[in-house]
Amino acid sequence: MLRHGSIGVRPLRRRDARAWSRLRAANVAWLSPWEATLPQEAGPPAASYVGMIGTLRRRARQGHTMPFVLTWDDEFVGMLTVNSITWGSARSANIGYWIARSHAGRSITPTAVALVCDHLLTTVGLHRIEIAIRPENDPSLRVVHKLGFTEIGIAPRFLHIAGEWRDHAVFQILAEDVPRGLLERLDR
C-alpha cells in the first residue's frame, strides 16, 4: 500500500467487485467521455468485473500491467492502471486513471499518480512514465501540469473512445526529471 495522508493506492482485488460496480454505475456520465472503448472489429468488451480483473491479473503476472485502487480514508474512490510496461532498454510504462466525481478536486488523483510514479521510477526501476490525455479533458490536464509532466506532442487518433478514434496529448516524466520524487514536487 502506498499512502500519503488520507490518500492511498493499493492493488486491485477480486473482492473490490461491489465497490467497483457501485462507483462505475454512479459515474457513467462523468467517465464515459474519457473512457476507452473497443472498436466494433475488436469484439465485445469484458462482460464483467470478474472478466476485467482476470485479464488485469493475468497481464500483471506477465509483468505488463499493475492495476491499483485509489482510496480516500480507505474507501475505494477510483482506479489507476499502469499499462504497457516495457523492460529492456526502454524501461517505460503508461498510466491511466479515473476518480469518482464525488471525490474529484481533492488532490487524490495527482497524489496517487505521484505515489505510483515514485514507486515505478525508484522501486521498480523504470525510466519513463507516459500519460495520454484528450486535449479537452481539463481535469486530467490539471493533474499532469500540477505534477510537472512534459508535453511531448499530440498523438492523432490515439485511442478509441465513445465510438471514435480520438487525438490525445502525450506527456512524460523521466526519472532524472524528479530526483527527489514527484510527491516531493507536489508537496512544495
Mind sketching the topology for me?
Layout: E1 2-4, E2 7-11, H1 17-26, H2 28-31, H3 49-61, E3 66-72, E4 75-86, E5 92-99, H4 108-124, E6 128-133, H5 138-147, E7 150-161, E8 164-174, H6 182-187
Parallel strand pairs: 5-6
Antiparallel strand pairs: 1-2, 2-3, 3-4, 4-5, 6-8, 7-8
Task: Report a brief summary of the structure.
The protein is an alpha+beta fold and 188 residues long. The protein has helices spanning 17-26, 28-31, 49-61, 108-124, 138-147, 182-187, and strands spanning 2-4, 7-11, 66-72, 75-86, 92-99, 128-133, 150-161, 164-174. The two termini are 23 Å apart.
CATH architecture group name = 3-Layer(aba) Sandwich
The total beta strand count reads 8
Strand content: 25-35%
Number of domains: 1
Order of H and E elements: EEHHHEEEHEHEEH
Label the overall shape.
Answer: globular
The helix content is 25-40%
Helix/sheet category: alpha+beta
Broad CATH class: Alpha Beta
- Can you tell me the CATH superfamily? Gcn5-related N-acetyltransferase (GNAT)
How many whole angstroms does the radius of gyration measure? 16 Å
Q: Could you tell me how far the N terminus lies from the C terminus, measured between alpha carbons in angstroms?
A: 23 Å
Fill in the CATH topology: Aminopeptidase
Q: Give the mean pLDDT.
A: 92
Q: Total helix count? A: 6
Major sheet: 8 strands, mixed
With strands numbered from the N-terminus, the spatial order across the biggest sheet is 1-2-3-4-5-6-8-7
